[in-house]
């Protein structure tokens, strides 16, 4: 697990950490660059087949599952290097990802301020703004909505 916050200091530290994880989990070298990308919003990382570099979301670095995000991108990287199926739908990708324990999807960084729930079926509705619970109902069962967290 990534408890070393020095990884977040620079691209060089990130690259060295990705190289270390690659050797430990795959037994294969990572020979390219890993870069922080502040423009990423909902994705944990990206693999670029054109030049084989990896981008990572710095907001995800604080999460306990950040190593698993790195492993996910390394699965893309190593399969591409071996000319095997490196895309999400490919069998090789799914098998290697399960083998190394990488995340299938990036964790949600949602910052919803309000949580509404249906009183009948329990459907959850995260929202940024308040809604009129007298006017709006559950989309699933038409039950009454109730504000759970503020």
Automatic annotation (TrEMBL):
Residues 12-148 form the SprT-like domain. It holds the Pfam family Zn_ribbon_SprT. InterPro entries: SprT-like_domain, SprT_Zn_ribbon. This is SprT family protein.
